[in-house]
Specification:
With about 160 residues, this protein is mostly beta strands. The chain is built from no helices and 13 strands. Helix content is about 0%, strand content about 50%.
């Protein structure tokens, strides 16, 4: 007899990117996959955009990851320890793309993530990947800038979890 799997998706409301951070709270501890969609995101500065996970609070340290650019800036690679890096190098532009995280090990709360994004005014495409061990079950996710002071001035972000 075949096994039927039912995927239960829960979508957080798509939000307009504004302020210094976009926070998604109350992610259920049962979440095993997080998918972010970005459309026309920009900031008023040049700091790199990062995605951070949290359990009780946002964790801004201890990520193991890097990212690279393909296009006019081919070969640029950044190591990122403050979150999953989204834009390499930091460029004021509109960005669209996808980032996702998967729970690798529920016993250790180890998450792995990746992103693929493109900028609207260049021929650059960025790829990145990272891993993060949380102190407990995930309950929040934040999209912000590495310097924590640049302000989002346009775009939409949506989070879907399962």
């Amino acid at each position: 007899m075949p096994i039927t799997q039912t995927r239960r998706l829960k979508s957080a409301i798509a939000v307009t990117a504004s302020g210094v951070a976009v926070n998604f709270l109350n992610i259920p501890a049962s979440a095993k996959r997080l998918n972010l969609a970005f459309k026309d995101i920009s900031t008023n500065g040049t700091s790199q955009i990062v995605v951070r996970l949290g359990s009780g609070s946002i964790d801004a340290t201890g990520y193991l990851g890097a990212g690279s650019v393909i296009g006019s800036s081919t070969g640029v690679t950044n190591v990122v320890t403050s979150g999953l890096g989204i834009i390499f190098p930091a460029i004021v532009s509109m960005m669209s793309g996808i980032a996702d995280f998967v729970l690798l090990d529920s016993g250790t709360n180890t998450w792995v993530g990746r992103s693929t994004t493109a900028l609207s005014n260049t021929n650059n495409t960025q790829w990145s990947a990272a891993s993060k061990i949380l102190a407990g079950a995930i309950d929040r996710l934040q999209v912000t800038t590495a310097n924590g002071t640049d302000i989002f001035d346009s775009g939409t972000i949506n989070l879907i979890w399962e």
